[in-house]
Design brief:
Layout (H helix, E strand, L loop, with lengths): L13 H4 L2 H35 L6 H23 L14 H36 L11 H23 L13
Helix pairs in contact: 2-3, 3-5, 4-5
């Protein structure tokens, strides 16, 4: 199968998509999400056990779970984009010529990149505003700014992934079963 998307030959960004940088990127984002998910599981187990055994839950466990969910979701977002595992509605693709599909995919990647980079900027700015105002969670008084700015960084990475895929697509852009 040829090059399914994008507007440039795939050899241009093999340094990232097939190299050590890609592996490190996958490991860091994957471990970030996995550790946060594991922490949620442990916290939930201890919270439920505490309620059942000692009739006492862990104070602030809901807040911590919410913050960890942010880490799970936004830590996995660059990986989902990198591996092309977004849900795709492609029933009209059979009607489009191959060259039009390539251009379409390149434009979609550019639009996704622009949106994710804009979102990254907004989240980073919001995090800075929250830091200046001293915003914290209600019960445990955990600062919100690092989480919001972390979301911005991860959205920025996702935007860069889409930008790279727009100009330097690989041969295997999407996984099986990810389309409708």
């Amino acid at each position: 199968m040829g090059n399914p998307s994008g507007i440039c030959p795939p050899s241009k960004y093999r340094f990232f998509m097939d190299g050590k940088l890609k592996k490190k990127f996958e490991i860091i984002c994957g471990m970030l999400s996995a550790l946060a998910l594991f922490a949620i599981m442990v916290l939930t187990f201890l919270d439920v056990s505490g309620r059942k055994i000692w009739s006492q839950s862990i104070p602030g466990s809901l807040e911590v779970t919410e913050l960890l969910m942010v880490v799970v979701i936004f830590g996995a977002l660059p990986l989902v984009s990198l591996k092309g595992e977004h849900v795709v509605f492609d029933s009209l693709d059979v009607l489009l010529p191959r060259q039009v599909q390539k251009i379409q995919q390149g434009l979609i990647q550019l639009a996704c990149a622009a949106l994710m980079l804009a979102l990254a900027y907004l989240m980073w700015s919001t995090g800075a505003d929250f830091a200046a105002a001293g915003e914290t969670t209600a019960q445990l008084k955990i600062a919100k700014a690092p989480f919001i700015q972390g979301m911005g960084v991860l959205c920025g990475l996702t935007g860069l992934v889409h930008l790279a895929k727009a100009f330097w697509p690989t041969e295997d852009e999407s996984s099986e079963g990810g389309t409708l």
